[in-house]
Known about the structure:
Layout: E1 28-32, E2 39-44, E3 47-52, E4 65-70, H1 85-98, E5 105-108, H2 118-128, E6 134-136, H3 149-155, E7 165-169, E8 172-176, H4 191-201, E9 210-213, H5 232-237, E10 245-249, E11 256-260, E12 263-267, E13 299-306, E14 312-314, E15 317-318, E16 327-328
Parallel strand pairs: 1-14, 4-5, 5-6, 8-9, 9-10, 10-12, 11-16
Antiparallel strand pairs: 1-13, 2-3, 2-14, 4-13, 7-8, 11-12, 13-15
Amino acid sequence: MSESTEMQIQPGTQTDVPASDGIDRRGFLKCMAWAGTGLVWTFAGGVPTSRVFGEPMKPSAQSDFTFVQISDSHIGFNKPANADVTATLQAALSRIDAAPGAPDFLIHTGDLTHSSKPAEFDTLDQILTSHRQVLYVPGEHDTSVDDGKIYLERYGKGTKGSGWYSFDHKGVHFIGLVNVVQLEGMGKLGQAQLAWLKQDLHNVKSSVPIVLFAHIPLWAVYPEWGWGTSDSEQAFAMLKRFGSVTVLNGHIHQVMQKVEGQVVFHTAMSTAFPQPAPGSAPSPGPMKVPADRLQNVLGITNVSFVAQRRELAIVDATLSGTTAEHRETPA
């Protein structure tokens, strides 16, 4: 993974503090983006409740650590949907830097670049890793030209196969999956990765919160457009024994949510350009909006781990600070 001057997490490593840290490994994950308005959705036993975003949280619910998800930067894209994707990525990072409390790390859920060119990766590295710890999984735009060779040379240290890996951080088990290399209409994990996942989970206690992140949604958002992963059910069969599973994806450039039992699925906005809502256009692809509205359809996600709780709340907002539109799909 890329190096930075802050905390270094290598794939497959353990970053837990000793058991005396006081962190309840039955804790919860809270996902939100920075905004002054909106609702925080809280799920307790699958039942959603909400509060106004920005409303002070009780002292007992202060987070123990946070991390940030960004996605689909598409460095190198320069068409009318966004002629300066570097600037909008910088805007996203400025919101992260302006938020109270620095996140422990960033997770980028793929399509770092638009064409897998070395210069595009260079630009991304200059922007992202100057003073941040960043963890990656590839998108299809990072692998389609050379099967991910450049991506793996830069970000694949310590990973397995085409770039999958796991690590533990302060009581949470993170798993980065790759579902963009064996594309067959939809995303695909493949048997080698599924076998690795089974082995990876073998010694993880069922009380440990799990965070999976991959580029293409690991749930069937809209299979007609390839927005899903064909063999994801095999992965989730291995996760049934865990009490808290959070799935973070990108690819579709918009916020969608689904809650199914103990699993919460969440897709993130892009920092580059929006895509149409499922089925609302003949096909997916970059969607042009008026220049003064662009930052209303781009965004970031902040995720906090809070000890002594069993809840999960998700809110997203745009780079402009307005509330993002949420679309929920049935279980």
